[in-house]
Amino acid sequence: MLTIKVFVATDCTQGRRDNDFHYTDGTELVDLARSCDTDRGDPDGRCGCCRAFTGLASRKATTTAEVAYRQLTPEQYRDAFHTSYVDAGFPDTSETRQDAVDAADELRRIASSWSVGTVIERRGDTLGVRAWGDLTTRED
Ligand SMILES: [Zn+2]
Predict the structure, then answer these.
(1) Does 93 have pLDDT greater than 90?
(2) Domain segments of the chain: what residues?
(3) Average pLDDT over every residue of 115-129
(4) Which of 32, 43, 83, 126 makes a 20 to 30 Å CA pair with 6?
């Protein structure tokens, strides 16, 4: 079994911003929330989608995620995104599959550049560091 670096939900640093929220379950895998027409890319919008991550299993949102190791193959990680999208109501088509693969690969690429335990926030299309992880766990 491969070990890969991914983003998972965390409540660490919650409350550092006035408009933080955290509804995800435990340390589940997360994706970036899809942005809606109301917030239009504004990370401090009323809806909150542009500062949110979505839990793949719960489909609930959080504003904080952290880098963690998970014993998954890249394919299993992509499958988790695909399953989540279908559970959310997207049609089980090749387009949805490709969206899942693209999202999983992109997040895994970004996560690989940070140490495990690094807490991340989202500001629209940008991911930023709230708290640095433990450099002793760095593997790259
Ligand atoms: Zn929104």
Answers:
(1) yes
(2) 3-133
(3) 95
(4) 43
